[in-house]
Amino acid sequence: MASAGASIEWYDFFIYGTAAALVFPKLFFPPDLPPFIAQIAAFSTFAVGFIARPIGGMLFGHFGDLHGRKQALVVAMLVMGAATTLIGLLPSYAVAGSLAPLMLVVLRFVQGLAVGGQWGGAALLAIESAPANKQGFYGSFVQVGVPLGVVLANTVFLIASSLIDSQAFLAWGWRIGFLLSVSLILVGIIMHRTVSEPEGDAAPKEEAPSSPLWQVLSKHGLTVLIAGGAFIANNVCFYIAITYAVAYGTATIGVPRETMLFAVMIGSLAMMPALILCGALSDNFGRKPIFVMGAILSGIWAFAVFPLIETASPALITLAITVALFFVSMMYGPQAALFAELFPKEVRYSGASLGYQIGTVAGGGFAPIIATALFAHYGASAPISVYLAATCVISMVCVLLLGRKRHA
User: Per-residue confidence at 22, pLDDT binned at 50, 70, 90?
Assistant: First the structure.
């Protein structure tokens, strides 16, 4: 149930990214803006969700360490479902003027708060109930929620755009995917009523600190920061592949929108078993070796992705995205267990969530904006590849710096 809820919540988060690449520049900003500026503005609202995620990690992590993983996760799911549904009801700039982008930013911030809290709850529910020698394997099923959310989001956009014309899609068709997220509210209610708190999912009362957030920052602050650095490349490579690449392929190369979305869907489908495989391999060969190998291969593949997209060949574009996401899986598959093992149980929700969300801000939140700016300045994709490779080096070094502690 936790994994299902996480998948729908990631769907809510990612459908915004797809809309930011394809729809929002035309709907929520002044029509006289140059396309480049409108795209930057849309991606900036996308980044707002990432800025909110560490705050959500702190709030929900604190609550989850004190009151249990399930309760925090259910609240996060309800908040996400409500915010995403409301985005589907927002008026456009033509109707509401400057209030339209303002309301969009506010609801995106709320989305970020919710997703900042959900990952820690879902991951720890899975890992803390797993046998000691299968925590990477169990944790990887929660990670599968990410590509599954991408597939669901892109499927909705593909179906809607194929059934109605472009004008109708811009007018109302894009809203369908956001309104469907009301299902997350139902899942949250069902989970609250039917799923019991696992035995010992939070620290015993006598061990629980009065302020888990303060304790994790004061005693484990450096570990949190290094964990965030380790997670940068994962986010940069992933969000460039699923968000910026779509905008680059359609707006710059002239590839049909359906071709780019299909490539992302195929890559995301392949990512699901890859995550489980890499999580299981980390149980046998260690979290760090699998993670580091993924960072190295991602850095190398960064120089192949854009040349392949620039061919405009559907097969080569699909190859570029699929291989990129497979290498990301080598980092993301073991990541849940790796982060859980860094912190003692009484502050684990706070510590793991903060490390995770700091990495998303430093990596994924601004990656599409940075990539767009780099291409606009240099007029070539090579600087974007250098940017991707540099983040892979940073994450590789941070993973190697992480301590050997095993608290899970």
Answer: confident
Place of tokens 């990631």: 10
Query: Quick one: pLDDT at residue 405?
Result: 56
What pLDDT does residue 206 have? 52
**Mapped to the 3 state alphabet, what secondary structure does the chain carry?**
CHHHHHHHHHHHHHHHHHHHHHCHHHHCCCCCCCHHHHHHHHHHHHHHHHHHHHHHHHHHHHHHHHHCHHHHHHHHHHHHHHHHHHHCCCCCHHHHCCHHHHHHHHHHHHHHHHHHHHHHHHHHHHHCCCCHHHHHHHHHHHHCHHHHHHHHHHHHHHHHHHHCCHHHHHHHHCHHHHHCCHHHHHHHHHHHHHCCCCCCCCCCCCCCCCCHHHHHHHHHHHHHHHHHHHCHHHHHHHHHHHHHHHHHHHHHHCCCHHHHHHHHHHHHHHHHHHHHHHHHHHHHHCHHHHHHHHHHHHHHHHHHHHHHHHCCCHHHHHHHHHHHHHHHHHHHHHHHHHHHCCCCHHHHHHHHHHHHHHHHHHHHHCHHHHHHHHHHHHCCCHHHHHHHHHHHHHHHHHHHHCCCCCCC
Q: Which two tokens stand for residue 73?
A: 């996760």
> Residue 307: is its pLDDT beyond 70?
yes
- pLDDT for 133 beyond 70: yes
- Angstrom CA distances, 87 to 13, 80, 84, 212, 319, stand at 11, 11, 5, 33, 33
Alpha-carbon span 294 to 238, nearest angstrom: 12
Residues 6+ apart with CB under 8 A from 250: 21, 22, 256, 257, 260
- In the predicted model, is pLDDT for residue 144 greater than 90? yes
Kindly state the tokens that stand for 326: 């497979």
* In the predicted structure, residue 1 carries a pLDDT above the cut 80: no
pLDDT confidence of residue 228 = 94
Contact 131, 73 (CB under 8 A): no
Could you tell me the pTM of the whole model? Answer: 0.84
Domain 2-194+209-401: top CATH class: mainly alpha
Mean pLDDT over 41-69 rounds to 84
State residue 211's pLDDT score: 76
d(CA 135, CA 279): 8
- Burial status of residue 28 (CB atoms within 10 A of its CB: 0-12, 13-18, 19 or more): buried
CA separation for the pair 219, 240 (Å, rounded): 34
